[in-house]
Amino acid sequence: MTAYQQLKVSKFIYCTLTAAIDRVTTKTDIKCQFVRCLIGKQHIEALFDSLAVNGETTYTIEVNWIVHMKMAFILTMSSCFIFINCIQLYTFFQNHVFRETPRYILFAHMLLNDTIHIIFTVLLYLLVINFQQISKGFCTLIVILSGSTFFNTPLNLTAMATERYIAICLPFRHIEICTVRRISFLIWVIWILGLLNFLIDLLEILATRPMIFFMANVYCARDMLIMTAWQTNVRITLTGVYFSSITIVILYTYIEIMRQTRSTRSDSGTSASASKASKTIVLHAIQLGLCMMSLFSPLTERLISTIDQITANHVRYFNYCALNIFPKCPSPLIYGLRDETFRKAFMCYFMFAKK
Hints:
single chain; mainly alpha; Rhopdopsin 7-helix transmembrane proteins; 2 strands; 2% strand; globular
């Protein structure tokens, strides 16, 4: 049975069950639950299992107010942090010293990358939660931008850690190595590496599907670009290479900076800078750990969905908040406030924005 035929069958069953359930109660939102079951690839079984337990009609359905509270929380938190990120970006572009300093350039790139990621992941969440179909072309754009910015985050953290390593361990070569031109080139490399997985998937679609493929309407999901098994294998391989390489680099920079801290304890200025840099690397490592945890969250969601669909929904929502939204929201603010020069400029613009 083709995917189109499966969708027609799913719609038929959905309409039939909705008509039957409407005669029993109007206080639950079967449509929202059907979407969650559909996304979990257990839609028919989960929906039937929820209709008859011990001879009584029961519903494992999230009522409207729970769904609305989840949406309101996500929108409120993401809007607040997007606003703060925009002020920090404005602070960066208004000061020529920041624009010519490598670490501030990488910091601004992190702000921009995380802002794009939050916008498109929240948009994808709203489309899913509201059962909205969009064209495959628009869905492809959302999936590519949300996915590539996810991979850009650890790559950018690695670049920031390497820049701090050069500044502390190779101070006399820092100006020579970390130029604005090289940092700009490095940002292009980060985006190419972040897009690589999705460019491979897109090229596979362009080579095997007609252009009309992008005009059809679908329920947008991250797996829409996966057409063959080898694409999954390539994605797993590249992801493994990315994160193992990034982990090695961050561990190496942290160890070397800590060694430099111990060797320069007599010099209070150098020791303080090295100590601050080592704490920054620790923050990078924590963010990297959260990124790696998010790679394994779909596995736990699938395991729980075989037991209880509603619990799986809550776990999926928690993973989305804790591993995708929250790590990217406060971290730019933490990095910005830890730097005294940037903090003073940021607070000036922030207080003005509040007024």
